[in-house]
């Protein structure tokens, strides 16, 4: 199976020893995105503002691989406060609409840069 790495300036550069995404066979595994702008500055706003930036980053990584949100088959959401789930879910629904990939949502004690949300996705590249 061929493996290749995806890198784009449409999302923040990796802040550690990992890739923005990895293509493996028919799938793209995108690393978790936090609300950093591509220039590395942090979106300090509430969960709604932060989630919009996370999706902008995800869309940038997917676009570099020739994909869109409609190619996502699985998402994992890490949220700092489950009391914010409803607000996050509203924004999430704006981006996926009728396309409903499988999803897990987990409350965590802490995220990088003390952000409120991180989302990673798996997308299907096709055959």
From TrEMBL:
GO MF term list: deaminase activity
PROSITE patterns in alphabetical order: UPF0076
One Pfam family this sequence matches: Ribonuc_L-PSP
SUPFAM superfamilies: YjgF-like
Name of the molecule in the record: Ribonuclease
NCBIfam families in the record: Rid family detoxifying hydrolase
Domain of life per record: Bacteria
Homology family: Belongs to the RutC family.
Any one Gene Ontology cellular component term annotated for this protein: cytosol
Annotated InterPro entries: RidA (IPR006056), RidA_CS (IPR019897), RutC-like_sf (IPR035959), YjgF/YER057c/UK114 (IPR006175)
Signal peptide range in chain numbering: none
